[in-house]
Amino acid sequence: MHRDERPLPHDATAAGTARRHAREVLAGWGIEEEELFDALLVVSELVTNAVEHALPPIALHLRITAAADGSTMLHADVIDGGAAAQEGAWTRNCAADEHGRGQQIVAALAESTTEQHCNRGVNHGATLRSALGTGRRTACEPGTRHGA
Question: DSSP code of 132?
Fold first, then answer.
């Protein structure tokens, strides 16, 4: 139904850049405000993890797909260059209890999450339900992950 891809800087500005871009794209697709908030949090966590734990390049992929029952799913994927030899600057310089919750946040908000090694690195994905501006949430099975 809808698809968008955006390369991101591999630095501290990446999460903010991704949130601003995703907000514009998803609002344009008709994602409702409550779902938009959850989607932006998921995007932010996926991108932050890529900056802190992976090599460049980083790209954000957003997709809306339709299920057989007419419901829709939002897929947010971040493809990075694979695991970095050392943690990012923020992770290295903060206490252990100040980081490490990103994957838990994504898992709590998403219907499903994926991690798939691909020819460009690693694809970290999350699938969320989407009512696409209908004013109601639809019951549906989690969508399938498609490689980016």
Answer: T
Residue 11 DSSP SS3: coil
3-state helix, strand, coil in the chain (%, to 5): 35, 30, 35
Which residue, among 1, 148, 2, has the nearest Cα to 77 in the 3D structure?
A: 148
Enter the pTM of the model: 0.80
Nearest to 148 by CA among 128, 112, 129, 121: 121
Could you tell me the sign of the dihedral formed by the alpha carbons of 102, 107, 110, 115, in that order? positive
* 64-120 confidence digits (pLDDT tens): 998 788 888 999 999 999 988 876 555 545 555 555 677 889 999 999 999 999 887
* 79 within 8 A of 123, measured Cβ to Cβ: yes
